[in-house]
Design brief:
2 domains, alpha/beta, Ribosomal Protein L25, Chain P, seven-stranded parallel sheet, 14 strands, Alpha/beta knot, 7 helices, 248 residues, single chain
Length: 248
């Protein structure tokens, strides 16, 4: 006798929705999400969709009705609680658009709790479309089965970030001129932390002096090679997650 297929199937599409989810609830889906379900995933009545609300966790739902512009989903059961997110912030200097998109995507996949973009003197960009950034992190979270979205702060100048930095939260900054080996620095602090990554041209001397003077700042080295901003962010997040985050 053939085994009963698992439900919901692993191939079921995943969506984050703004509505708080509960068993038996009805969730209307319109706009781009409806287009994705109907035109890309070609769901029909009775098909499974996995939903997350960034509040309660992950839920299985069924398509109650499917139209071209609107789909009604019926919430069936809870699958997982919202994940516990390591208290790690990424503070990346703005990069060129495609490179910063990569930072947003990979930081989400790797599990950061908050992304706080900064502007430094050598940044080639000074603005960020927050709606577009939120779309990127949401799609990344859907792809890697996260049940929580990272918070995205508005862009701040480096000086503002440093003035408002919370007491007791380590601020690691990747300094191309050198610092304590990253894994060694991470091992020395068991608590909330953040990571500051510079722009394409790095920090200038005045910025480096300002950062190093901050009581929570800890200069770290990411090895003998100079890394691009996006590579440094991905590498350092991975190292922290492996030593202090939820990879451990």
């Amino acid at each position: 006798m053939p085994a009963t297929p698992a439900w919901p199937p692993r191939s079921a599409p995943r969506l984050f929705v703004e509505q708080r989810l509960e068993e038996g609830g009805s969730v209307p889906v319109e706009g781009n999400q409806a287009h994705y379900l109907s035109r890309v995933m070609r769901v029909g009545e009775g098909d499974a969709v996995i939903l997350c609300d960034n509040q309660t966790g992950e839920w299985a739902a069924k398509v109650a009705s499917a139209g071209k512009r609107r789909i009604e989903l019926s919430v069936v059961e809870k699958l997982r609680e919202r994940e516990s997110v390591p208290d790690f912030w990424l503070c990346p200097a703005l990069l060129k658009k495609d490179r910063f998109d990569l930072v947003l995507e990979k930081a989400t996949e790797l599990g950061v709790a908050r992304i706080a973009p900064v502007v430094t003197r050598r940044c080639v960009a000074d603005k960020l479309n927050l709606d577009r950034a939120r779309t990127i992190v949401t799609e990344a979270a859907e792809q890697c089965a996260r049940t929580a979205l990272p918070d995205i702060a508005g862009v701040e100048k480096l000086g503002t970030l440093l003035r408002e930095w919370p007491t007791g939260r380590a601020l690691y900054f990747a300094d191309e001129l050198g610092g304590q080996p990253a894994l060694e620095a991470f091992a020395a602090h068991d608590g909330p932390a953040g990571l500051l990554i510079g722009p394409e041209g790095g920090f200038d001397d005045a910025e480096r002096e300002l950062i190093r003077a901050h009581p929570e700042a800890k200069a770290i080295s990411l090895g003998p090679r100079i890394l691009r901003g996006e590579t440094a962010a991905i590498a350092a997040i991975s190292a922290w997650m492996a030593s202090r985050g939820d990879w451990a």
